[in-house]
Amino acid sequence: MAKARTLRGLALVMGYACVAIGLFHVLLGNASIPGEGSAGPTIDSLGRFFGAIFAGYGLGWLWAARQSPVPARAVRWLAGVFLLGALGRLLSLAVHGWPHGFQVALTVLELVLPPVFFWLADADETMARGSAYAR
Question: Is the peptide bond before 69 cis (omega within 30 degrees of 0)?
């Protein structure tokens, strides 16, 4: 039961955070990226576009967190996408060097959270099956 509550809570936090971050990027453009306020109109356009995509990604987390039970398959896919983002950051680090320290902190989160979600993914479905058998 605790794992299922943790899964739902983390998925909700992830969803709200991604929606907020995405909208922040849509509204502020280059100003939302530490150290990149003058990156130019092309990067501004790209950043705002990806901000909208990230907000949509957050809505996917919120959708999953509001299902009963929380679908393990959706959690695994969403966590996999997050991990892919971290791998992209690592590739950038290898090709271009160290980014702003805030981006490094985000990379750590993006590497740590997916395994947690993979571990918790089926907790709510397992609990629901157990409740169905108990009836």
Answer: yes
- Token pair 């959270």 is at which residue? 113
Residue 86: other Cβ atoms inside 10 A: 18
Q: How confident is the model at residue 65 (pLDDT cuts 50, 70, 90)?
A: very high
- 2-40 pLDDT, tens digit per residue, is 999 999 999 999 999 999 999 999 999 999 988 776 788
Report how far residue 88's alpha carbon sits from residue 91's, in angstroms, rounded to the nearest whole number.
Answer: 5
Q: How far is CA 77 from the centre of its chain?
A: 11
Contacts of 30 (CB under 8 A, 6+ apart): 36, 37, 38, 39, 40, 43, 44, 47
- Lowest average pLDDT, out of 5-9, 40-44, 106-110, goes to 40-44
Question: Are 89 and 107 spatial neighbours (Cβ–Cβ below 8 Å)?
Answer: yes
